[in-house]
């Protein structure tokens, strides 16, 4: 019950605070003020919208906010000779288009599949686990795991021995439901594959659940040297700003609700 309440509240809350929605909302409010004759309020509000759009267009705010997330953990970590399990988090799937086109459709987080396939081939005797149900409030029948099965088969991977967790709706449930399925033991080595910006929240969840994992970040937005350049790209910058806001808001929400032990998790819980 508590998990469902958090799921619905997080979906509804995020719908109204995401940066792209706020831009549209303030633009609409400005127009309403204009039509109602409140010209001063309209000019102030529409001016804020235009200024915000100009700032987003020129300055890579999203990239700047993503950098500390992506650099929190090492990319291409040195892995031990023996790995007990490899986990990939769902989220790279477009289940709606997969349903419509009857073929697997994935989004710009497809690097997760590449990284997972690399580790599956490097550690064929490890447990290979995909975790992801549906994050859609209205279509729980469209599962990340179903799309993933098709993608793995198309990649030439043997899925007969893979484990697919298909009930989770968010990152916390990814960790919780997966742990209940595979029952990891103390001292085992598990590798977690997910988008670099999503690694801190994911590791925080697994730390909270008492499941030690080695993060394997993929799908980066920023440069290794953290350099940023100015430009004129509103759509890209806005998209990255939404992504960054998603992760930072998620970190705060997970910490407040006890799903992570720290606001900005690191490899060791409590650090």
UniProtKB/TrEMBL annotation:
Top-level taxon in the UniProt lineage: Bacteria
The UniProt record lists the keyword Transmembrane helix: yes
Entry keyword Lipid metabolism: no
InterPro entries listed in its UniProt record: Cell_Envelope_Assoc (IPR051599), DUF218 (IPR003848), Rossmann-like_a/b/a_fold (IPR014729)
Location of the DUF218 domain: 84-229
Transmembrane intervals: 21-38, 44-67
Pfam families to which the protein is assigned, alphabetical: DUF218 (PF02698)
Gene Ontology biological process terms from the UniProt entry: Gram-negative-bacterium-type cell wall biogenesis; peptidoglycan metabolic process
GO cellular component term, pick one: plasma membrane
Record key words, sorted: Membrane, Transmembrane, Transmembrane helix
Annotated protein name in UniProt: DUF218 domain-containing protein
């Amino acid at each position: 019950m508590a998990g469902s309440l958090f799921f619905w509240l997080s979906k509804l809350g995020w719908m109204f605070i995401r940066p792209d929605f706020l831009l549209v909302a303030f633009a609409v409010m400005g127009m309403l003020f204009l039509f109602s004759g409140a010209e001063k309020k309209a000019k102030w509000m529409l001016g804020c919208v235009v200024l915000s759009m100009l700032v987003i267009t020129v300055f890579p705010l999203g990239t700047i906010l993503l950098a500390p997330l992506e650099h929190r953990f090492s990319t291409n970590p040195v892995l031990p000779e023996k790995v007990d399990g490899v986990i990939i988090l769902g989220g790279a799937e477009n289940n709606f288009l997969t349903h419509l086109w009857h073929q697997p459709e994935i989004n710009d987080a497809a690097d997760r599949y590449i990284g997972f396939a690399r580790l599956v081939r490097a550690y064929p005797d490890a447990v290979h686990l995909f975790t992801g149900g549906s994050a859609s409030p209205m279509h729980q029948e469209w599962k990340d795991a179903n799309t993933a099965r098709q993608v793995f088969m198309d990649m030439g991977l043997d899925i007969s021995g893979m484990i697919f967790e298909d009930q989770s709706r968010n990152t916390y449930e990814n960790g919780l439901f997966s742990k209940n399925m595979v029952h990891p033991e103390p001292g085992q080595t598990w590798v977690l594959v997910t988008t670099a910006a999503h690694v801190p929240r994911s590791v925080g969840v697994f730390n909270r659940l008492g499941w030690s994992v080695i993060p394997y970040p993929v799908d980066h937005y920023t440069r290794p040297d953290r350099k940023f350049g100015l430009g004129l790209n509103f759509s890209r910058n806005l998209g990255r700003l939404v992504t960054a806001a998603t992760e930072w808001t998620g970190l705060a929400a997970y910490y407040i609700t006890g799903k992570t032990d720290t606001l900005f998790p690191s490899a060791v819980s409590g650090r």
